[in-house]
Amino acid sequence: MYGPVLRGARVVLRPPVPDDVPHLVRWLADFETTRMLGYLQQASSEPQEEDWLKKVAADERSVFWMIEIDGKPIGTSVIRSIDWKNQHGESGTLIGERDYWGKGIGIEQAELRTAYAFRELNLQKLKSAAFADNIASVRMQRHVGYREVGIQRREIFAGGQWHDAALSEILREDWEARQHDGSQPKA
Which domains does the chain have, with CATH numbers? Predict the structure, then answer.
């Protein structure tokens, strides 16, 4: 399903619109953008991305947003593989516009997404995985309050080599404590 509009100081998370499709195609065709995601590097077309967005809209086990800055789509944010019975899901981020890398956008969108997961979806835990050598992603997760819970060695084969996966998670109770002790801005 698509998520509702969530507004932060700079970031807006919003449902995708048809005009976003060319951006998705361009981002997924850019090896530098996708190399730390483990995606197979294959070209996608606008009709393929349109079909994919229709599947995402109908998926009751995911919530998907476009990340927007000043009216410009710059990436995607998702909670996927939601287990409603056990109240947890997996989070993921793609900042497709390289000009926005390293500017705190990932942190702000993750804070919005995390607040939504715990306040609106009533989840108890969010999990995430990143290439262990994806320093930006690992830092973003820590900043939001995720704790590393393990390393899966040689988990992902991408770019002609094996990569370890850093697994992390945040529990609702830990997130709530951060909201009250001032260690994180209120989302």
Answer: 6-181 (3.40.630.30)
